[in-house]
Specification:
The protein is an all-alpha fold and about 210 residues long. About 75% of the residues lie in helices and about 0% in strands. α2 runs antiparallel to α3 and α3 runs antiparallel to α5.
Length: about 210
């Protein structure tokens, strides 16, 4: 009897999401102390830990991953909306004349939309695994890398606008971008495991019941 091969994509993904949770604890404490939207880091900590659980357990019940990415999607959307409102009336909220016609607003909107899109695609891919269906497996094969690409585009835009000095490059900002890099790696391995739970073999997207 041929032994079913197993991948280690889940372990790498689980470790990365735990690291992300730890990094976000620092950001949560920083913004809680000095002011800012600390709540989004608290939600992110909960989401990252939730996502890591089935990855470490190699569980075929992926609803915690679904819940985690839904939380991240909602959190990012709320953050985007609040930020947009601030740009609509910058003298009141920001103490400057930076408005919706500024490069800073373009950077804010595009990076957040890409990040939201990445999380939503992760939600869709996870939902596709909930029912054994060949057509759904084919969709997963075509979509599993999309969240990673959108996440990369999000940080590339941040780097571009940082190069033209739209953002203030302080220590916390750089640390925040550092966490985004970890997120790209985490979502890559999480989606890779969902698509290829038994590794890159001749029959990709095998049933999660086999793992």
């Amino acid at each position: 009897m041929e032994k079913t091969k197993k991948s280690y994509f889940n372990i790498v993904g689980g470790v990365i999401f735990i690291i992300l949770a730890l990094l976000n604890i620092f950001l949560f404490l920083h913004y809680l102390r000095y002011g800012g939207m600390w709540w989004r880091f608290l939600i992110s900590i909960i989401a990252y830990i939730t996502i890591s659980i089935p990855l470490f357990l190699r569980s075929k019940k992926l609803w915690p991953i679904l819940v985690g990415f839904i939380l991240l999607s909602i959190c990012q959307l709320i953050y985007c909306i609040i930020g947009t409102i601030r740009y609509l009336d910058p003298p009141k909220f920001m103490g400057s004349n930076t408005g919706i016609n500024s490069p800073a607003f373009v950077a804010h909107l595009t990076t957040n939309l890409f990040a939201i899109g990445a999380n939503i695609f992760a939600v869709v891919i996870t939902i596709l695994t909930f029912k054994e269906d060949t057509r759904r497996k084919e969709k997963i094969k075509k979509l599993w890398f999309v969240p990673t690409i959108l996440s990369v585009l999000s940080i590339v835009i941040i780097l571009i606008f940082s190069a033209i000095k739209v953002y203030i490059l302080n220590g916390v900002f750089i640390f925040l971008q550092f966490t985004y890099v970890f997120y790209i790696v985490g979502i890559l391995f999480a989606m890779m495991w969902i698509a290829y739970p038994n590794g890159f073999n001749k029959n990709p997207v095998e049933s999660l019941e086999k793992i």
